[in-house]
Amino acid sequence: MKYISTRGQSPAVRFEDVVLTGLAPDGGLYVPERLPVISLQQMADWQQLSYSELAFEVIRLFVDGAIPDAKLKKMIADSYAGFSDPAVAPLQHLYDNQWVLELYCGPTLAFKDFALQLLGRLLDYFLEKRQQHVAILGATSGDTGSAALEGCKHCQFVDMFILHPHNRVSEVQRRQMTSVTGDNINNIAVEGNFDDCQEIVKKAFADQSFLPAGYQLVAVNSINWARIMAQIVYYFYAGFRLVGKYPAVSFSVPTGNFGDIYAGYLAKQMGLPIRQLIIATNRNDILHRFISSNRYHKTTLEGSLSPSMDIMVSSNFERFLFDLFKRDSKRVTQFVTSLSGNVQQVTEEEWARARAHFASYSVDDAATCATISETYKRTGYLADPHTATGIKAAAMCDTDASIPMITLATAHPAKFTAAIEQAGLPAPGLPEHMADLYSRAEHCTVLPNSLDSIKQFMQQRLAARND
After folding, report:
1. What residue ranges define each of the domains in the chain, with the CATH number in brackets?
2. Among the options 2, 71, 73, 112, which is catalytic?
């Protein structure tokens, strides 16, 4: 299998190169030349597999021989062996047709662990084979950073530079990142918002001449195809728990950078019987505005009680546009590069096709808190604020009460105690392995919102590491 850029100006590459680059040289995102389709017989054969066994069957379709099967199977098993629940992604019934898929059983209590535990092992394998050093440069709205550090901190050939928006992540999220230490780890608080951090990362990838000889940048954000690939698995896993009793399933997905729900879209394209995919946003609702009114444009990014979704430019939306525009890379490029200050629209026919795939709903902070409180009182289930947006959007957009509606529970509520307390509930305690988090020393550098300042910092750190 080869991978092509959404912007059409880079040559097709194989899986190994996709993992080790992330962003294509032309600024586009990699997608498979052809998406594998799973037959009904294959899905029937897979229904009783454990999470790790199912992950191997799905992921090997995209790896396509780049890693021997036995080695890949062990990587995947090791990635999920430390999750706190034996199911890895347990499915919980809330009420009526409403369910939640708990994706926070990994080491950093967020869904990002599903991909980044595996990505660290993929990097180890390919970099050791090449005897090559790389610099990971990633932007995080809160959860990607800690999951990336946890998944990649032991990688022998990797130096890590993780950018987060200064004072715009929760305290637990910040401490999870800044308490991780190591000569190869650099936490940077950028005096800006997440979109600023993401823009710095994209510009740095476009011109890597500032790096020492022999180095290249590797992405850990969901622009890296390996992230999307790993997330496809839990849609199949959840679907298989219920398909058989029901003809189809639906999903409501708290959505910031569009990567998580894009993985659900791919699972549907691969054959999983999905009735609805609901985009749940907070007040930063660019995706909801597109789905509801065919208007895609930036507004002022605002802080919220669900900070991991405080994103205005959803990078992975470009991958969906590539399909929506029938792989017309010129149209994709024009659409995404003309966003600043402009209202972008698609044709009526294209908008109808987008709405055939997705519904959407925007949930403000007041509704988020009300949903946390109401869900707890009704079911005893404590949802974090991101999951609460998904639960609310599911209630508002569900068109078929006979079909299970699964909300992705993307983070543990202990990561967002301010929202829980604002909802009138006591803050939950941290799990045992993180009980001492507030007493751990923090290590972080605050830098201006400037590409040059980030480049200079990276040059200094990499030079010191190579002395």
Report:
1. 86-110+226-422 (3.40.50.1100)
2. 112
